[in-house]
Design brief:
440 residues, Immunoglobulin-like, 3 domains, 7 helices
Length: 440
């Protein structure tokens, strides 16, 4: 089925290489990278009778080659599952971690593929056959305002804890720590007109789980009591309405309709427990940030874009690494930005090649407002509103979710009283497609 398997670093260097059949030239990675450079990223293409099928993850290329007419979707699913298994076993999927654990990666690949034929690609099934342990990669502490980040409180687990290998043993060597992580993630896509009115608004969310639990205990995960599925936007006050949902195959749905309870035996490693979709804005309180652009002429040639952003959520939350980008007209000559007086943890930059202005706010406190003024020079006949690109925003809001979907409780059913696992439940609102038009 598969002739070759490669894992390539972002710079094109080979980290993992398996040649199963010897029927594809050894310079296949060079041909692949040349094609990627010359054209846009295509997951599937053919060159000189050789099929190239690729999945890109965290800048790494997971590549298969074959001379046979294989189903591309099947190989893409296999490579995607390989990325998940590697992440489960080594914790962090990046070039450094792969190089430090290349022996373990080769062992995983040998168990997943036999002479190019897929055998198994499940983290739980592989545990009986994989004996190498992961060498964890040290993650540098984040710095905030020149001071090292404070250590987490005893009942709080750092967000980086979910990136450790599933087989990592504790300092005493007694075995795996008994933990399970549950993350409720809302991904927002929205567009607004220049007056701040909503044109489109959707939430594509998920409940992600990563299990370090020993054995195969049964989990009872309860969601909101007032949860409505497919209500058509007519749910009552206080209810949480989702347009549609789908679940992981391990979920038993017997109690979901009556009690909004998910019953499952979680597989080892990381997986998506549930996906959900909200196709429209339910109420104005779901808008986390208001973007207010005002374009005005300072003179016949000089224009000013006054950009103001307000966080609509409570001040006990904050936006992290908030980034706003917009483009000035292609005919403009340069651009300068003035930050508000006393602005902290804010930076800006201008790329003259793309005419793009980027404004970065590292911490955006809820209930606060930030503003900048951007000045640029254009020709007198330029239609500025027509030529200016929209304002695009990307952000994360930790421990806050717009959908209001909540994990009410997480019960681990185990008869052994000494079985005392740690449970970590977190939520996050995330957006990379949050756009406000400047012109009408």
């Amino acid at each position: 089925m598969i002739s070759q398997l490669f894992v390539l670093a972002p710079n094109g260097h080979t980290i993992v290489h398996k040649d199963y059949r010897g029927d594809v030239p050894k310079e296949a990675p060079e041909i692949f990278l040349r094609r990627v450079v010359e054209k846009t990223d295509q997951p599937v293409f053919q060159v000189d009778g050789v099929n190239y099928i690729c999945v890109r993850k965290n800048g790494l290329f997971f590549l298969c080659t074959t001379v046979y007419n294989v189903p591309p979707a099947f190989v893409i699913e296999l490579l995607t599952q390989l990325t998940k298994v590697c992440k489960d076993y080594i914790g962090v999927l990046n070039e450094e971690s792969l190089r430090k654990n290349f022996t373990l990666i080769y062992e995983l690949v040998d168990e997943i593929l036999d002479f190019g034929w897929p055998q198994m690609a499940s983290t739980a099934d592989l545990q009986a056959f994989v004996f190498n342990t992961a060498a964890p990669v040290t993650v540098a502490k984040e710095v905030r305002g020149g001071l090292a980040a404070l250590k987490a409180a005893p009942k709080t687990m750092s967000s980086k804890a979910v990136h450790k290998p599933i087989s990592l043993r504790d300092a005493s060597g007694r075995g795996d720590k008994n933990e399970i992580f549950v993350d409720v993630i809302d991904r927002i896509s929205a567009t607004f007109n220049a007056n701040g009115q909503v044109r489109t608004f959707t939430i594509d969310g998920s409940i992600q789980m990563k299990s370090y639990l020993t054995g195969s205990p049964q989990l009872h995960l309860a969601l909101n009591d007032q949860l409505v599925i497919g209500g058509g936007g007519h749910a009552g006050y206080g209810m949480v309405e989702l347009d549609n949902v789908n679940f992981h195959e391990c979920v038993q749905l017997d109690k979901f309709e009556q009690e909004r309870m998910l019953v499952l035996e979680p597989p080892h490693g990381e997986f998506v427990l549930m996906n959900f979709h909200i196709g429209s804005l339910r109420h104005e309180g779901q808008i986390p940030f208001r973007i207010m652009p005002v374009l005005s002429a300072v003179s016949d040639y000089k224009q000013e874009l006054r950009l103001q952003v307000r966080a609509e959520f409570a001040d006990k939350y904050h936006g992290a690494n908030v980034k706003l980008t917009f483009t000035v007209p292609k005919t403009s000559t340069g651009a300068t930005v003035e930050l508000a007086q006393g602005a902290k943890q804010q930076t800006w930059e201008y790329d003259d090649a793309t005419k793009t202005v980027t404004w970065l706010i590292r911490k955006f406190q809820g209930g606060s407002t930030h503003a900048i003024s951007c000045y640029f020079v254009v020709k007198s006949e330029t239609n500025v509103k027509k030529e200016m690109g929209p304002v695009s925003m990307a952000f994360e809001i930790p421990m806050y979710n717009i959908s209001q979907l909540q994990v009410q409780h997480l019960k681990i059913v185990e008869r052994n009283k000494s079985y005392n696992p740690h449970r970590w439940v977190r939520c996050l609102t995330h957006a990379e497609s949050y756009v406000c038009r400047i012109g009408q």
